[in-house]
Amino acid sequence: MMAFINQEAVEKADEIDTKAEEEFQIEKGRLVQNQRVKILEYYERKEKNLELQRRIQQSNMLNQARLKVLKAREDHVDQLLEEARRRLGEVTLDKSRYSQILEGLLLQGLFQLLEPAVVVVCRQADVSIVEGVIDKTIEKYKEATKKDVSVTVSKDHHLGAHVSGGIELLAQNAKIKVSNSLDSRLNQINQQMLPQIRTALFGANENRKFLD
């Protein structure tokens, strides 16, 4: 009887050990799998972060390259503008041609103002040339507008030495001013034609959908 009981106890103990071993192996497998998944997720996140950093670095390098190209283009346009401004000064050396230019600038300014009395400000070196075109310009103005106008050249104020040439027109005690200096006209043309200038120099911008 005792031998039977002992045998039953041994078998029961073996059964418990076997079950415990199975549960241990199952739990061990689960823990190993969980750790494996965590490790894979860690390295996957790390790989994604590295890829993201690589893309960010590549994008930054590309943007820096684009900025350098844009800066070089702007510098080139500025150089052309400066060259054009230098050549404006050469225009004033041809007195006959410069006289015609001043006449056109004066007439255009009078049309813009349509005021009965106008004061013209010019470079001190240009006073006699401007005075020489006033009468002819007034005749053209009267013929076109059927209005009288008084035009005088300022003796007290002149355009600065840095100005290439041209004139400024003042009316109503200098409350209204039209700048028709050669420099201001060059700047106006530059602003108006900047898209065309860039296209002529560097080609059409494929990313630009609208033109100014």
Q: Features of this protein?
A:
4-stranded mixed β-sheet; 212 residues; alpha+beta; 10% strand
The count of DSSP E runs of length 2 or more, i.e. the number of strands, is 4
Unreliable residue stretches: none
Return Rg in Å: 43 Å
Strand share of the residues?
Answer: 5-15%
From N to C, what is the helix and strand string?
Answer: HHEHEEEH
Q: Which overall shape is indicated by the principal axes computed on the Cα atoms?
A: rod-shaped
How helix-rich are the residues, as a percent range? over 70%
Number of helices: 4
Write a structural description.
The protein has helices at residues 2-91, 95-113, 127-145, 182-202, and strands spanning 117-122, 150-153, 166-171, 176-181. With 212 residues, the chain is an alpha+beta fold. The longest helix has 90 residues, at 2-91. The chain starts with a helix and ends in a 10-residue tail after the last helix. The protein has 4 helices and 4 strands, in the order H-H-E-H-E-E-E-H. Strands 2-1-3-4 form a 4-stranded mixed beta sheet. Helix 1 packs across helix 4 (182-202) and helix 2 packs across helix 3. The relative contact order is 0.09. Helices cover 70% and strands 10% of the residues. Strand 1, helix 3 and strand 2 (150-153) form a beta-alpha-beta unit. The mean pLDDT is 84.
